Each structure stands twice: as structure tokens, then as C-alpha cells.
Amino acid sequence: AQRVTQPEKLLSVFKGAPVELKCNYSYSGSPELFWYVQYSRQRLQLLLRHISRESIKGFTADLNKGETSFHLKKPFAQEEDSAMYYCALPYSGAGSYQLTFGKGTKLSVIP
Amino acid sequence: GAGVSQSPSNKVTEKGKDVELRCDPISGHTALYWYRQSLGQGLEFLIYFQGNSAPDKSGLPSDRFSAERTGGSVSTLTIQRTQQEDSAVYLCASSLIGLAGIAYEQYFGPGTRLTVT
Predict the structure, then answer these.
(1) How does the average pLDDT of chain A come out, rounded?
(2) Given B40, B97, B108, which is nearest A44 (Cβ)?
(3) Least CA distance to A91: which residue of chain B?
(4) Would you call A26 an interface residue with chain B, using a CB distance cutoff of 8 Å?
(5) Residue from B97, B26, B86, B33 nearest B61 by CA
(6) Of B109, B105, B98, whose CA–CA distance to B21 is shortest?
(7) Which own/partner contact pairs does B39-47 have at CB distance under 8 Å and 24+ positions apart?
(8) Cα separation of A53 and A29, whole Å?
(9) How would you label A46-56 residue by residue, b for 16+ Cβ within 10 Å and e otherwise?
(10) CB spacing of A43 vs B111 below 8 angstroms
(11) For chain B, how are helix, strand and coil distributed in percent, rounded to 5?
């Protein structure tokens, strides 16, 4: 069964410091991975997906198949980055499509 | 444009009562999903609808949970004989589906916060 692990429930960093949110996955095959973000009192939204190789709001994430990781990074954290972050792995098959989410990491950026 | 909407936004019910949660997906999105967000468990998949195909109900935690999608649009998630462990935020999402059944971006609703007392 596929699984997504986010080892940190809470991550606190100072404004301007680098931030790395960890995500590890277990999946046999070539995965497609996402990061979703939920700001306070807002709905869950897609931040970035690895196949697009974009940098969104200064965040990047590189898929490392050898380490089965998809860590989210930003060189300089901003206060507005404070939010819950979820790593997600899609499952597609047998007429179904769904996302398997990690349990999330709450990022708190200290001014 | 209008996003995914859900109602009610909050629901408090007594243990043993039935509840219905509603989801209005984005117009034109053929795929609709329900997830549950609870403390300590993160986001769990519940059910998936795609067009007129049979839904994938593999994530429903018990037979007290059921869902319908009428006319390929609005969906209702029903929980019968609610228990305290059903307390959570229930999220609905919708998306387009591309070739080979791969979904485009899932757009989430604001959720319904269910509290069972």
C-alpha cells in the first residue's frame, strides 16, 4: 500500500531563515507528488506538483527517487508562509482516483 | 468563478442522530471526492465519484456512512447513528478527469465541521 510520511507535526522557524518540510513516500513505480497548503481559515489548495517543476511563492520541491522523498523548501521564510502543509500522493486504478495525504506539518514563522 | 461549496459549515448533533452533508462541485467537473480531516489522522479519503461510473467507496469507515451524487453534480454524504469518533471536518473536492483516468487539480470546498456530542 502506498504511504506518505511527514515526520514533523510542527516546525517553527524565524522569518528570513530557510525552511524545509519533509515528506517521504512509499510507492512502487514512478510517483506523481503534490504539496497542498491550508492557511488559517482558508480552504485547502494546491501549492505545487512535481511534474510542473515550478516555484510557487518561493517554494520548490524536488523528487528524490533514491531517498523516496519530496521535501518542500524555501530559502527565506516569510510570516505569511505560516500554514498547514500536506504532502500528497495520488492513487489511480480500478476506476478510482484519490489522494493519499500525509498527516501534515504546521509551519509557524516567528517574526 | 464559484468554487466548491459545502453546507452546512458547522453541524452539532447528538450521538445516535443521522446527519447529511452537502457538496456542490465546480460546474463541469465530473469527478467529486469526499475526505475527512481529523486531529491526529490528517486527511483520509472517503469516496470518489466519476461521471456515471460506480463510485469507489473503499474509504468509507463503516456501513453507517453512505454518499450519493445526483445528476452528476450535487453530492450528499450521510452518516447514520453518529458516534463521537465521527467528529471531524468533512471536505469535498472536485476536478476534471483527463485521459487514462488521471485527475487534474482537485479544488476543495471549505468543509463542514461536524461535532457529535
Answers:
(1) 91
(2) B108
(3) B102
(4) no
(5) B86
(6) B109
(7) B40/A103, B41/A103, B41/B88, B42/A86, B42/A101, B42/A102, B42/A103, B42/A104, B43/A44, B43/A86, B43/A88, B43/A99, B43/A101, B43/A104, B43/B91, B44/A101, B45/A98, B45/A99, B45/A100, B46/B77, B46/B90, B47/B77
(8) 19
(9) ebbbbeeeeee
(10) yes
(11) 10, 50, 45
* Distances from the Cα of A5 to the Cα of A21, A26, A86, angstroms: 11, 9, 10
Task: Match 486527511 to its residue by C-alpha cell.
Answer: B43
| Residue of A9, A43, A89 to mutate, testing the B interface (most B Cβ within 10 Å of its Cβ) | A43
The two beta strands, B10-13 and B112-116, are parallel
Min Cα distance B42 → chain A (Å) is 4
Any idea which residue has 457538496 for its cell?
Answer: B23
pLDDT tens digits for chain B (117 residues)? 589 999 999 999 999 999 999 999 999 999 999 999 998 778 999 999 998 888 999 999 999 999 999 887 999 999 999 999 999 999 999 999 877 767 788 999 999 999 999
